[in-house]
Design goal:
The protein is an alpha/beta fold. It contains 11 helices and 17 strands. It has helices at residues 14-23, 55-60, 80-101, 108-112, 135-138, 142-152, 206-213, 233-238, 252-264, 302-308, 338-372; strands spanning 4-9, 34-35, 41-44, 68-73, 118-121, 124-127, 156-163, 171-177, 182-187, 190-195, 221-224, 244-249, 271-275, 289-292, 315-324, 376-390, 393-404. Strand 2 and strand 3 (41-44) form a beta hairpin. The radius of gyration is 24 Å and the shape is globular. The protein starts with a strand and ends with a strand.
């Protein structure tokens, strides 16, 4: 068919479905979104992925009266490179004018030192530490940040240098322009607020948050052992319908954000926050479900999770882990095609995930017996790939059903 394949969606669901398509590798990220005259938005899809899209699954994520359909657009969808070049040209032009008005000369070295990548949080732009490193910029003082904000269409600016080693994974962020550092995100109809100088937002977990939102947890008590600002606590409460969630978090800044988010989403009365190290948690025999959303590994908290499950009925553990697959040696087979390598690699990855899940199930079974003194049976319900951190390093989630015999 002629044109560009797109998912036509209602404007209120754009962010949610865009992130879902992106996580599935189906979003054509070289093209911009296109807003139609009827208020719907076209999300460009890679042509090779059209036949693989589960439209029924995508439609189930939005309200029944909302638009969600595949169309072939005859309109001109602009390249992101063109848009980015225009934005970059605007910033470069503004900075060049600033320097020249201060008697300085614009150079290629200065051009390479301006930001080409950044994060946008509403009206706040978060810069990395790989820009404005030349000494000349320091002479511009606050004029520089006002000019950068104007060039990037922002009201506030901040810069992140690294992730701290304080045990909380706090970002080391400095505000450059603006009175406060609180920002807002909306994912799948859930409002998240946090301070960018104290907490991080994990956008890469969108598919897992959507999956959790699809659970039926009515009548269930859930324990989220690593709640953060509510990444999974809120989907369990808002969409999955959990009767109550015990949210454990040791970072006081994340706890402050979590409290705000529970109130903002109208679910504060169905959540108990346990601030501090979950190793010291006094709860036991309360959970139908335990979420262990810590990577690279939540293994240290497996005994706590086992203790939390209801002794008479058991429950489900959602165990997050970074699993590393061995590097395949295809150099010795020069005739092998790229497609064959990809299929072979995916199969090898799945085999490694399954082996990890089998071993984890055995260890959890043993832990449950040691803790309760009774025999248990475990069943691997599902293994979910969330995202890749590097070649052959995958963030996966094991759904492990645990029942007493």
């Amino acid at each position: 068919m002629d044109g560009v394949p797109c998912l036509r969606v209602s404007q209120c669901h754009v962010q949610q479905l865009r992130k879902c398509l992106q996580a599935q590798g189906a979003l054509d990220q070289s093209l911009c979104l296109l807003k139609e005259s009827d208020g719907t938005v076209l999300l460009p899809i890679l042509q090779c992925c059209v036949s693989q899209l589960d439209l029924q699954f995508l439609s189930a994520m939005v309200a029944s009266e909302s638009t969600c359909e595949i169309v072939w657009s005859q309109s001109s969808l602009h390249s992101k490179k063109e848009r980015g070049r225009t934005s970059g040209d605007k910033l470069e032009k503004i900075l060049q004018q600033l320097l020249e008005s201060n008697g300085e000369r614009w150079t290629e070295e200065l051009r390479r030192d301006i930001p080409h990548n950044f994060q946008r949080h509403g009206d706040l732009v978060l810069l990395g530490d790989n820009c404005f490193s030349l000494p000349l910029w320091q002479k511009m003082n606050q004029q520089l940040w006002s000019a950068v904000a104007r060039g990037l269409g922002a009201k506030r600016l901040a810069r992140m240098s690294r992730i701290s080693t304080d045990g909380f994974r706090s970002p080391v962020v400095t505000m450059l322009l603006g009175e406060h550092s609180w920002v807002k995100h909306v994912d799948n109809g859930i409002r998240y607020e946090f301070d960018v100088t104290k907490c991080m937002f994990s956008a890469g977990n969108i598919t897992e948050k959507l999956r959790v939102a699809g659970f039926d947890c009515r009548g269930e008590t859930v324990v989220d052992l690593f709640a953060g600002i509510g990444y999974f606590t809120l989907p369990y409460l808002v969409h999955a319908g959990a009767t109550h969630v015990h949210a454990c978090e040791w970072n006081p800044d994340a706890v402050e954000a979590l409290q705000k988010n529970l109130v903002a989403n109208g679910v504060f009365d169905r959540c108990t926050i346990h601030q501090g190290d979950n190793q010291q948690l006094q709860l036991c025999d309360v959970a139908d479900r335990v979420n262990l959303g810590l990577i690279p590994s939540s293994e240290d908290s497996w005994p706590i999770a086992c203790r939390l499950l209801k002794k008479t009925t058991g429950g489900i553990l959602h165990i997050h882990q970074n699993v590393t697959s061995p590097l395949s040696n295809t150099a010795a087979i020069p005739a092998i095609s790229d497609a064959t390598q990809r299929v072979s690699g995916k199969k090898a990855d799945r085999e490694v995930w399954q082996a990890w899940a089998d071993d984890t199930a055995k260890r959890i079974t043993s832990l449950l017996k040691d803790i309760t003194g009774a025999s248990w049976i475990t069943n691997i319900q599902h293994i979910e790939r969330v995202k890749s951190y590097a070649p052959h390093i995958h963030h996966v989630v094991l759904d492990l059903e645990c029942r007493p015999l």
